Amino acid sequence: MGRINAGDLNERVTKIGRPASVDDGRGGQKPVGPGVETQWWVKLRALRGSEAVRLGQPLGTTMYEVTARYEAHFTTKDRIRTQNGRTLNVVAVLPDGRKEYDVLTCIDSGQ
What we know:
The protein is mainly beta. The protein contains no helices and eight strands. The two termini are about 30 Å apart. The model has no long low-confidence stretch (mean pLDDT about 85).
């Protein structure tokens, strides 16, 4: 990955971490409370989109590449809320190797 300048991180997003969970008494876990939200500057780039019809309703998905500082510690269990209200699911996290940036692959299912 090429060098990223601070000015390239021009989109303010909210990282929504997975909420804490407790034992549900049946061998599973249940969430308690909302996920932890933190603010980060990122570079957000739409890669591609697709549309399909499910049960007679149009359904569109858009894939995004999100570059974030390494300190954000994104995981595939996190979600990202953009400034315009979209919620993206993080599906892959690729560190740059120098522990400066992570490149995330995210999907907006339009839901």
